[in-house]
Design brief:
- Helix content is 34%, strand content 22%.
- The chain is of the alpha/beta class and 610 residues long.
- It has an 8-stranded antiparallel β-sheet, with helices on one face. The protein has a 7-stranded antiparallel β-sheet with strand order 5-6-7-8-12-13-14, with helices on one face. Strands 17-16-18-19-20 form a 5-stranded parallel β-sheet, sandwiched between helices.
- Helix 15 packs parallel to helix 17.
- The longest helix has 32 residues.
- The chain is globular and about 75 Å long.
- Bound molecules: 6-O-phosphono-alpha-D-glucopyranose.
């Protein structure tokens, strides 16, 4: 969603701001803007549309001598995408300007009060109230003015602020939305996401909730929530700048699809000890604690929810615990029944998804054990969870997740094995064989990608003219069908639906007619004969069927129109192979339809509003 950048240093600011905004484009946005301080004046330039449009608009500004500036990409919530709703927003008399990520929930009341006092609003945004409040609260001290102002705000915010009276400093603060900082010989950098800092430094300062930081060309001074100065340590990230580059691929999505053997390998291998046990850095249960667990509730949004659906099947099968799964936006408002014997697992690539974060807070409040599966280090969800297991997928840039999903699914294989062993249900040779299969998975993923990439590019041709597609499967295949369908629809804009194969005949089969394309996922050997019957039912009504199955079922699939054959694999891990041709199908279909693959319309990588 929205992105923030800031720079102050010895060099010209505008090129850094534009470069930072380009790095944040992947988050999804609809307008962009920057502000600098020049000759004692705040200078704001902003526009609806892409950063490239902003760049064209301010071509001459690249030579601007300003050494300080802030920038923003906006994803519209309050007010349509437009030039005037774009950030930065300025105070009435131009003393302050601000860029903001998050939502101010009490903005309406604040706006009414300000309007009653004669303040004129120039935009429809919630953010503009912050600019005006800063001016009203101004006491000659930049940091204290910011603190007075944020004390009046309810909701979530990451703020980066300029003040005309202090042309040599930026003040930032946050609550509920992330903000990171870094320093190099060129100066100090601020961003809402580390990917915009990696070109300059790998040593990242994470601003905690309610902390404030005063940034100058020389360095940063941090203040805790009481306003007292606080020493902060940076965290060194072992990330290569190439992680945020396309490395010769046409799109980040394809690059990230091809990175899955590494993402899954890094996630799994670091959790298998020399003795062949499964162990996590921050999540430990004694055998008694594992046996005392009565229930697991998995909560997430989007593809992370689909990864949780895989987790449900695998954990129930191995650990014999009831697992319920819910969408975070539903869970948080349904008054869930939780207790100390419930393990609530929250899954999030970004670690900032508003509904998932709220669900975590609710579970914490109700005394459940919470475990978060997160990709972005030190994100809000990682920080607030009782325990965290990081997926080691590396930065994911494409809006449509692939490698982070694959890594989340792998964590569930680890967790299922871990819980099953602790509960005495998977021991001895059976456990060792499970771990061996797990360690073999990254190579099988690599082989599957190599084997099916060209075939999926060819098969995508028949999807290009489609208006509708259906994905069916049972058990683990159904979990995969949900993700496969989402991958196709979110980037190619073809309407697609996933159905539990056995449910199709309770309504949806009436939509099947001659030529309808049905993708049948049937890698799950335990239910293969059942799915085969469903394939026959849709074929009998004229559907064309593309089946995805392992080599073991190849011979039985003589009647389907097209098939993708996967290597044989431990049946519990089949989704990790089956999803690969589906990601490639979505990718090549979208590419051939001329869609903006890495930045699909209306979507955001990190959904920080509910
Ligand atoms: C957005 C992204 C999805 C992602 C979902 C949850 O919709 O486009 O790819 O699965 O948010 O995000 P999270 O960061 O919590 O995994």
């Amino acid at each position: 969603m929205c992105g923030i950048v800031g720079y102050i240093g010895n060099n010209r600011a505008v090129p850094y701001l534009l470069e930072g905004l380009e790095k944040l484009e992947y988050r999804g946005y609809d307008s962009a803007g920057i502000a600098t301080v020049e000759n004692g004046r705040l200078r704001i330039l902003k526009t609806k549309g892409r950063v490239s449009r902003l760049e064209a608009l301010i071509a001459s500004e690249r030579q601007s001598p300003a050494r300080i500036g802030i920038g923003h990409t906006r994803w519209a919530t309050h007010g349509k995408p437009s030039d005037c709703n774009a950030h930065p927003h300025e105070s009435q008399n131009g003393l302050f300007c601000v860029v903001h990520n998050g939502v101010i929930e009490n903005y309406h009341a604040l706006k009414q009060t300000l309007q009653a006092q004669g303040v004129t609003f120039r935009s429809e945004t919630d953010t503009e109230v912050i600019a005006h409040l800063l001016e009203q609260n101004y006491d000659g001290d930049f940091v204290s003015t910011v603190r007075k102002t944020t004390a009046m705000l309810e909701g979530a915010y990451a703020l980066c602020i300029l003040c005309r009276d202090f042309p040599d400093r930026i003040v930032c603060t946050r609550w509920g939305s992330p903000l990171v900082l870094g320093k190099s010989e060129e100066g100090c950098f601020i961003a809402s996401d580390v990917s915009a800092l990696l070109r300059h430094t790998n040593d990242i300062f994470y601003l905690d909730g309610n902390e404030t930081v005063l940034v100058t060309a020389q360095g940063m001074t941090f203040f805790d929530k009481t306003g007292a100065p606080v020493q902060k340590q940076s965290r060194h990230l072992n990330l290569d700048v190439s992680a945020a580059q396309k490395d010769g691929y046409d799109h980040f999505m394809l690059k990230e699809i091809m990175e899955q053997p590494k993402a899954v390998g890094d996630t799994i291998r670091s959790r298998i000890t020399k003795n062949g046990e499964i162990a996590f850095e921050d999540f430990h249960l004694t055998d008694d604690e594992a046996r005392a667990l009565q229930r697991i509730t998995v909560v997430a949004c989007g593809s992370a929810y689909h990864a949780g659906a895989v987790g449900k099947y695998v954990m129930e099968k191995l650990a014999r615990l009831p697992v319920e799964i819910d969408i975070a936006s539903e869970f948080r408002y349904r008054d869930p029944v939780l207790d100390a014997h419930t393990l609530v697992i929250l899954i999030s690539q970004s670690g900032e998804t508003a509904d998932t974060l709220a669900a975590l807070r609710l579970a914490n409040e109700q005394g459940a054990k919470t475990l978060c599966i997160v990709n972005v280090v030190s994100s809000s969800i990682a920080n607030e969870g009782g325990s965290v297991i990081y997926t080691h997928a590396g930065p994911e840039i494409a809006v449509a997740t692939t490698k982070a999903y694959a890594a989340q699914v792998s964590v569930f294989y680890l967790l299922a094995g871990y819980l099953a062993q602790k509960r005495g249900l998977l021991t001895g040779d059976a456990f060792r064989s499970y771990v061996r299969d797990l360690l073999a998975l990254p190579d099988l993923i690599g082989k599957t990608l190599n084997d099916c990439r060209a075939q999926m590019e060819a098969l995508s041709q028949m999807f290009i003219p489609l208006e509708h597609a259906y994905f069916i499967g049972r058990n683990l295949d159904y979990a995969c069908a949900m993700e496969a369908s989402l991958k196709l629809k979110e980037i190619s804009y073809i309407h697609s639906e996933a159905y539990a194969a056995g449910e199709l005949k309770h309504g949806t089969i009436s939509l099947i007619e001659k030529g309808t394309l049905v993708v049948a996922l049937c890698a799950c050997s335990a239910v293969f004969p059942k799915t085969l019957s469903n394939i026959k039912e849709v074929k009998a009504r004229g559907a064309r069927v593309l089946a995805v199955a392992t080599d073991a079922e190849n011979a039985a699939l003589s009647e389907v129109d097209y098939k993708v054959i996967l290597p044989n694999v431990n049946a519990l891990f089949s989704v990790s192979l089956e999803v690969l041709p589906m990601q490639l199908l979505g990718y090549y279909t979208a590419k051939n339809r001329g869609c903006d693959i890495d930045k699909p319309r209306n979507l955001a990588k990190s959904v920080t509003v509910e």
